[in-house]
């Protein structure tokens, strides 16, 4: 990329090249500047020199370099928390509809593909100097790129909020009934999940969302991650406490009246194909999406480099892979074919303080997480509208309208599997597969030295497109059926 016309000679001479693991800072390569232009020797010997120069110039136009202060360990914690979410509650259901072997294959594949997509995203950030996803899209593809990334990240955040409020809708009634000493069959308007989710939204979440700054709520992320770790421990413990045979005796389904049928249902299955199998891959993809948080975490990393952030990514994804697999396998081995799309809903809190504690902890965690995600979506909307000054009336109106829409969706969407399915085949697919590979291919389209990497990125893009072409029609077909 040529230098801008009118670039001052002194600015060129004072320009420093950022450190990189693979690039030498040999001053002999930067020898002459004539008439405001860099001598051809500046980029003659290696193609990567030109890419590095381009990267530095783009940094001047994209983001100002600010040193990070977060340690590697804390960055791993932050990224792990960004990955972890409500998707963990749907993985046992996904396993029940794929079988153990097929689920493990899908989980390993999505984990490795997610790590590769993070690698592509970090390369794009390094080449352009952009530390904000929307800015990166605008830098590479202009306004359409910014709009597509905004749409994908917003849909992902809205999907996460829907899944969190769905947990409130499903779990809070059972918790209240237990605290009131009522049976699970007790029904009244004030323990209806639809009423409770509206009450929580406008009684707790709305006041938090109306605040101008929600920075302090970031501390709840640690509590949220702790709740999920606690949930995993309880799932493992309950596997050895709950008997599948006892579940069969308590079931009312006529198919379980036959002991041989019940014995068959209490045996693990390794490969399954049914109408619900189509939701498995979107659910797993939804559980691994953290891409909107990668660049902010990267920008805060102390002594940051691409290799160091890639290490953070690898550790975080491996830790989440272990947590996800253990939650899914122990949840499935407890309830087998009767596992629900929200695993927590399988456990009954009647006379079980441990389950009640987990339920309340998860409910509180998701309630406090919704405003953080909502703040991000609303800020993106205002950024898109180029609204810089704070307007109280607009702030309140947008907050209220968005919360009303989200509540209507939560009330009328029948199950969490629909949320995981839709968000998984749309925004999760865009953020994991299509966007990182498209950005990488666009940035490196003139770099002949990266032909092999471009081939892999092209295959990655093709995989994402194929995933969309196959999964979206299947999800729609399943709705119709």
UniProtKB/TrEMBL annotation:
Subcellular location: Membrane
Membrane topology according to the record: Multi-pass membrane protein
InterPro entries reported in the protein's UniProt record: AA_transpt_TM
Main location: membrane
UniProt-recorded Gene Ontology molecular function terms: L-glutamine transmembrane transporter activity
Transmembrane segments: 76-96, 102-124, 145-167, 187-209, 216-237, 278-299, 311-333, 353-377, 389-413, 419-443, 455-480
Keywords per UniProt: Membrane, Transmembrane, Transmembrane helix
One Gene Ontology biological process: gamma-aminobutyric acid biosynthetic process
Plastid is among the record's keywords: no
One annotated Gene Ontology cellular component of this protein: axon
Residue span(s) of domain Amino acid transporter transmembrane: 69-476
Pfam families per record: Aa_trans
Transmembrane helix keyword on record: yes
PANTHER family reported in the protein's UniProt record: AMINO ACID TRANSPORTER, SODIUM-COUPLED NEUTRAL AMINO ACID SYMPORTER 1
Protein name: Sodium-coupled neutral amino acid transporter 1
């Amino acid at each position: 990329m040529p230098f801008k016309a009118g670039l001052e000679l002194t600015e060129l001479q004072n320009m420093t090249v950022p450190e990189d693991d693979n690039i030498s800072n040999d001053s002999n390569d930067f020898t002459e500047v004539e008439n405001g232009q860099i001598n051809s020797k500046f980029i003659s010997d290696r193609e990567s020199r030109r890419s590095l120069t381009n990267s530095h110039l783009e940094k001047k136009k994209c983001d100002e370099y600010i040193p990070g202060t977060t340690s590697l360990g804390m960055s791993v914690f932050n990224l792990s928390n960004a990955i972890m979410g409500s998707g963990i509650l749907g993985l046992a259901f996904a396993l029940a509809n794929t079988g153990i072997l097929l689920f493990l294959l899908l989980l390993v594949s999505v984990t490795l593909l997610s790590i590769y997509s993070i690698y592509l995203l970090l390369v794009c950030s390094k080449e352009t100097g952009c530390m904000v996803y929307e800015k990166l899209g605008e830098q590479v593809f202009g306004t359409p790129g910014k709009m597509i990334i905004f749409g994908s990240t917003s849909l992902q955040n809205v999907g996460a909020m829907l899944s969190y409020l769905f947990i409130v809708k499903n779990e809070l009634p059972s918790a209240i009934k237990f605290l009131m000493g009522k049976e699970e069959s007790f029904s009244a308007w004030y323990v209806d999940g639809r009423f409770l989710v509206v009450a929580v939204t406008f009684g707790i979440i709305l006041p938090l969302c109306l605040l101008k700054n929600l920075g302090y709520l970031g501390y709840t992320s640690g509590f949220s991650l702790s709740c999920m770790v606690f949930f995993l421990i309880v799932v493992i413990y309950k596997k050895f406490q709950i008997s599948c045979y006892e579940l069969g005796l308590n079931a009312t389904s006529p198919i379980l009246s036959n002991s041989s049928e019940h014995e068959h249902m209490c045996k693990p299955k390794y490969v399954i194909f049914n109408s619900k199998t189509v939701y498995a891959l979107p659910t797993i993809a939804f559980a691994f999406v953290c891409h909107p948080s990668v660049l902010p975490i990267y920008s805060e990393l102390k002594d940051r480099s691409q290799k160091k952030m890639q290490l953070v990514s690898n550790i975080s994804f491996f830790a989440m892979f272990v947590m996800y697999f253990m939650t899914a396998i122990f949840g499935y081995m407890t309830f087998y074919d009767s596992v629900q799309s929200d695993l927590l809903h399988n456990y009954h809190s009647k006379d079980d303080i441990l389950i009640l504690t987990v339920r309340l902890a998860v409910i509180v965690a998701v309630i406090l997480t919704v405003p953080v995600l909502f703040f991000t979506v609303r800020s993106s909307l205002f950024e898109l509208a180029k609204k810089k000054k704070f307007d109280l009336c607009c702030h309140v109106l947008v907050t209220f309208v968005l919360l009303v829409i989200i509540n209507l969706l939560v009330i009328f969407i029948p199950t969490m599997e629909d949320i995981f399915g839709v968000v998984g085949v749309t925004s999760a697919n865009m953020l994991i597969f299509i966007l990182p590979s498209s950005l990488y291919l666009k940035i490196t389209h003139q770099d002949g030295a990266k032909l092999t990497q471009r081939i892999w990125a092209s295959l990655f893009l093709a995989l994402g497109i194929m995933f969309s072409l196959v999964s979206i029609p299947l999800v729609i077909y399943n709705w119709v059926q």
